[in-house]
Amino acid sequence: xPVSVLGLAGSCRIAGNTEMLLDWCLEAAHERGAxxxxxxxxxxxxxxxxxxxxxxxDGVCVVKDGMQELYPHLWTADSIVLAAPxxxxxxxxxxxxxxxxxxxxxxxxxxxxxxxSTPDSRQRLGAHLCCAGTDLSDVFDCSRRVVRYLWHVLEVxxxxxFLCSGTDEAGAVQRNPSAKEVARDIxxxxxxxxxxPG
Length: 198
Ligand SMILES: Cc1cc2nc3c(=O)[nH]c(=O)nc-3n(C[C@H](O)[C@H](O)[C@H](O)COP(=O)(O)O)c2cc1C
Fold this sequence. Notes:
Elements (H helix, E strand, L loop, with lengths): L3 E6 L7 H15 L3 E6 L14 H4 L8 H10 L2 E5 L9 H8 L2 H8 L14 E7 L9 H14 L2 E8 L14 H13 L7
Parallel strand pairs: 1-2, 1-3, 3-4, 4-5
This protein binds flavin mononucleotide.
């Protein structure tokens, strides 16, 4: 079975900087033989977590919106790459909403005492691609913290990150001489064949 790579585009700006990074990454993963699936989070009908706690009973979210399309892939993808810019020194609302809606995974693990991985799972890998307009030394701190949390709840091991500062107008990432190769290298890592147990 080919390695499955789930790509999450977290910016609403079509063909913006993070979407370019994502596409370079996914293209390389595909060339390496991975089965690639890409979602633009802004195209899904996403709503915020209600904090209702219903997922603590069975690990299932009761909010029936675009997340229902995403959940199966979040449960089973061998690799996940999240591409999102910095907004207001953190993660933009749409991808953050998706992260908050991963509360069922948190409940599954920390309330119900279960694991996301199954005996059939491959090692799950994740990568974070991020752009920011400024060069502030702490500009990526909040986004990185959220992504680290996301990998924890999804039982994903970080396989890399690319944090591209000083990248503001759409397409600016193309002027970074190493961006494409770094993103492609991350894609190849995510697609790395790894055996299923047994
Ligand atoms: C609403 C908004 C808030 C932003 N806030 C920040 C910020 O706090 N710090 C920063 O360095 N860049 C900020 N930016 C700039 C974006 O991070 C930058 O333009 C990035 O390249 C956008 O990525 P995209 O093309 O994938 O959408 C902001 C942009 C927008 C639209």
